[in-house]
Design a protein that fits this description.
Elements (H helix, E strand, L loop, with lengths): L2 H4 L9 H20 L4 H11 L11 H5 L4 H12 L4
Helix pairs in contact: 2-3, 2-5
Length: 86
């Protein structure tokens, strides 16, 4: 690989359907974590950084829900929401 090849920016694209699903799943998982008395933000960050589903409660089927999506889809939804971009 040449230097020029390593300097190219790669494009990443997520389908709108995946984004809506990611948003819905994040809301459901957040609610389940809150219901169980966890700090949802801390738990979600732990999951997103490590990929370990043990950070997510199985209450309300939250653990299996969040595992339906790739972490990059979840991260994209979070970044777009944070930057108020649709």
């Amino acid at each position: 690989m040449s230097w020029e090849d390593s300097e190219k920016t790669m494009m990443f694209n997520v389908q709108a359907e995946e984004v809506n699903q990611a948003r819905d799943i994040l809301h459901q998982v957040y609610a389940a974590l809150k219901e169980k008395g966890y700090n949802p933000i801390n738990q979600l960050v732990g999951y997103l950084l490590s990929g370990d589903p043990a950070y997510i409660t199985s209450h309300g089927n939250a653990r299996s829900l969040i595992r339906r999506l790739e972490r990059d889809d979840l991260l994209e939804e979070l970044v777009k929401n944070y930057l108020n971009k649709k």
